[in-house]
Amino acid sequence: MREPRVRFAALTAGAARIEAATPAGRDRSLDALRAVAIAGVVLGHWLVTALTTRDGALHTASPLAQMPWLAPVSWAFQTLAVFFLVGGHVAAKGYASARARGTGYGEWAAARLARLFRPVGAVLALWAVASAGMLAGGVGPDTVQNLLKLVLSPLWFLLVFAALTAATPLVARLNPLWPAAVVAGADLARFGLGGPEWLGWVNVAAGWLVPFCLGAAWSRGAFTRGRTPAALLLAGGTAATASLVLWAGYPASMVGVPGGAISNLSPPTLAAVAFGLAQCGLALLVREPLARTMRRPFAWAAVALVNLSAMTVFLWHQTAMMAVTALGLLVSSDLPGLHRAPDGPAWIAARLLWLPLFALALSVCWSAFRTYEQKPRRRTRPRGTAVGRLRPMTVKEAGRA
After folding, report:
1. Beta bridge partner(s), residue 57
2. Do 350 and 337 meet the contact criterion of CB atoms below 8 Å apart?
3. In whole angstroms, how large is the CA radius of gyration of the chain?
4. Largest Cα–Cα separation, the chain
5. Angle at 119 between CA 115 and CA 121, to 5 degrees
6. 39/307 Cα distance (integer angstroms)
7. Whole-angstrom Cα distance, residue 37 to residue 84?
8. Would you say 319 and 365 are in contact if contact means Cβ atoms under 8 Å apart?
9. Separation between Cα atoms, residue 270 and residue 241, nearest integer Å
């Protein structure tokens, strides 16, 4: 009985330290929305991406291809628009504050982008070594290629997010209707007028610029006077998405489905943008309840720790899933919910049972690689020594992350 009490006391003390380290004026709802967005992406990938064994190789498969009635799962877990909404808000507000302090654009952009890209090097280095080792050990090129595709696919999101962040001074006051119109024009040219498919890649920037610009507008007070604008976003985005799916031929799934004629996500379509508007409206409506929840020390400590290493979680969650899948091969090459092709409700039930193991593997990756994201801080150099020592950011600093 004594040990659980000691652990609870330690958790309480840790949460209290994070609470004390948090600036009084911090908008905790932003951190909560960012944590929800990251959690949605991670869980979504774990649920709709499977690695199956076939012909002696690992192949990717999706339950959405075999069970299209699962499309609503993508509505709950495709949360990238919320991440771009928060990113636009934070970038615009941060740049305005930097200018007020006299900080130049170069210094501000370098600090923002370094936080995004520091953890990427660790992922690339580990998988370069792992890929070479697998090929040398006789693993087939198809398996290695499929694994690398899963590992590297999140980087497109990071590159787009970094580009929009760097362009904050240019796009911060852009009306979101303009990039939305670009997306509509590209879709009309592709799907309505038989234009080339490459036109859709314009939407990679334009599509995510819509929620990013909404976030910038939020930083200027656009959604702080009543709930009506956010409610209109939610209602209008929902109605537009339903109309595009029901009558314009867009797929119901908000993520790509293997074998599908159209992907709503790669590149983003007008349906994905409309759905993102609905998500942003919902996020803005729930920010006040979230802020109240974040006043609870334990809830805030959990959210603060996720935000402290959000990129680490994002970059390593696919590796965690693949590690569990590979270790499972030591037991059997036909474990339900892991190696078998998704083909029905039984697969879904089995998959849910694997999620805790995926989370455990991710926690191992987080422990090993989070220091690459958290900026090292230099200790005060003791008198008489030639070189100071470096240490990573501590839990105490999570409230200011």
Report:
1. 54
2. yes
3. 22
4. 75
5. 125
6. 11
7. 9
8. yes
9. 8
C-alpha to C-alpha distance for 396 and 136, rounded to whole angstroms: 44
| Token code pair at residue 346 | 């039984």
Contact yes or no for 312/370 (Cβ under 8 A): yes
Length of the chain: 401
| Residue the block writes with tokens 């497109």 | 156
8 A C-beta contact, residue 165 and residue 93: no
Token couple for 13: 């003390």
**CA 336 distance to own-chain centroid:** 27
329-374 residue pLDDT tens: 888 888 899 988 898 899 999 999 999 999 999 999 999 998 888 6
- For tokens 């595009």, the residue is 244
Q: List the domain boundaries for the chain.
A: 27-368
CB-CB neighbours of 159 under 10 Å = 14
Give dist(CA 167, CA 330) in Å, integer: 48
| Per-residue pLDDT reduced to its tens digit, 139-155 | 888 888 888 988 888 88
- How far apart, in whole angstroms, are the C-alpha atoms of residue 41 and residue 15? 26
Q: How open is the CA angle 173-26-369, to the nearest 5 degrees? A: 95
